[in-house]
Amino acid sequence: MNLAAAIHQRLAALAPESIELLDESGQHVGHAGAASGGSHFSLVIVSAQFAGLGTLARHRKVYELLGPLMQHDIHALAIRALTPDEL
Question: Among 46, 50, 30, 37, which residue's Cα sits nearest to residue 76?
């Protein structure tokens, strides 16, 4: 399973209405964190489970689900976490 598929699989626990995951690693060529490739991502995720949560709590939910991927495989992750009402 590739890294993007692993991210999608783990985030499925949020029952997202949509996920837009962009691999931006190509924009970081030469950066030390890009040496292993595929490690810079931008994420837009829409889930009703974010209702009533602030930005920090939403990001924590995402980080918790990604777990060890954040420690080893993902060097950078820009997150935009929304509820369906915020679209």
Answer: 37
